[in-house]
Design brief:
Elements lengths: L25 H7 L19 E4 L16 E4 L1 H7 L26 H4 E3 L5 E3 L2 H10 L6 H23 L6 H26 L1
Antiparallel strand pairs: 1-2, 3-4
Helix pairs in contact: 5-6
Length: 198
């Protein structure tokens, strides 16, 4: 089994002062979340979608937190919309009761409730994980397909680095094979994007 975020560690930086609103935080959130959705791990650089800022504790429960950097999560549109104003405990200081609620995805605790199976599908491993999967509708989304695309893109990136670093040292026929593989991956990724946009 894999972590939802794979080998990426997301962490909010220290020393960020609160503001009156969340809108000025998107750039540093992207950097601190390594351009992935905190909830589902989807890569915003790879998947050309509008990523949003989620208020982990909703503004309706915690109005003072609307400009609190430490209450913000870089989120894909689907995760943000599905979580939206939900906060079942009703208590600002309690994100869950062990069965219902949410876990801040930057905390190590997040990995205790959700994992990816061998195919990359996000699955719950606790009762709280079941709640999160149901509320974010992760069971209805193609998280394994997104994971596969992300893994292909990483392999493509590694191949491109091999091509760049070994141009003079590698048999030209091997370079041609690498080049063809990267082009095949590009073609597959473009076909996938086109299918999703139809």
């Amino acid at each position: 089994m894999y972590r939802v975020h794979g080998n990426i560690d997301i962490k909010r930086r220290d020393g960020v002062k609160a503001r009156s609103t969340h809108t000025g935080f998107k750039k540093i959130l992207q950097e601190d979340f390594k351009y992935i959705c905190g909830y589902c791990g989807k890569d915003s650089k790879l998947f050309k979608e509008d990523y949003q800022i989620d208020h982990f504790i909703p503004k309706s429960i915690y109005p003072e937190g609307k400009g609190d950097y430490y209450n913000l999560v870089y989120s894909c549109r689907k995760c943000n919309r599905n979580k939206w104003d939900k906060w079942p405990t009703g208590n600002v200081s309690k994100s869950h009761d062990g069965n219902v609620g949410f876990v801040d995805p930057v905390l190590p605790e997040y990995d205790k409730h959700l994992k990816r199976d061998i195919n990359g599908k996000i699955i719950p491993i606790t009762n709280l994980g079941v709640y999160i999967v149901n509320e974010l509708k992760l069971d209805l989304r193609r998280t394994e397909e997104v994971w596969a695309i992300m893994m292909l893109a990483k392999k493509k990136e590694r191949l491109e680095k091999i091509i760049d670093s070994k141009k003079d040292d590698v048999d030209p026929e091997k370079l041609i094979v690498y080049y063809k593989l990267t082009k095949a991956l590009d073609k597959y990724l473009n076909e996938w994007y086109n299918r999703r946009s139809e």
